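SAMPLE LOG
Freezer: B-3
Tube label: C17
Construct: single chain, 60 aa
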Amino acid sequence: MFIQWWIILILGERNESLNDLIKGYLEYSVHILSYFSYVTDERPGVTPKKVKIYEVIEEE
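STRUCTURE (predicted):
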């Protein structure tokens, strides 16, 4: 994230591949967080489930 911040600061835009890497890391850390903080006994899988980190608003 620190490297991404410098890229944004210098170039004015995000590096998409680095952005995807950071997003994947954050999704996986949230995926295993409940197990490692003893909230659940269910073991997490190797790969995280696809999640949406934003709310989808449907227009009529």
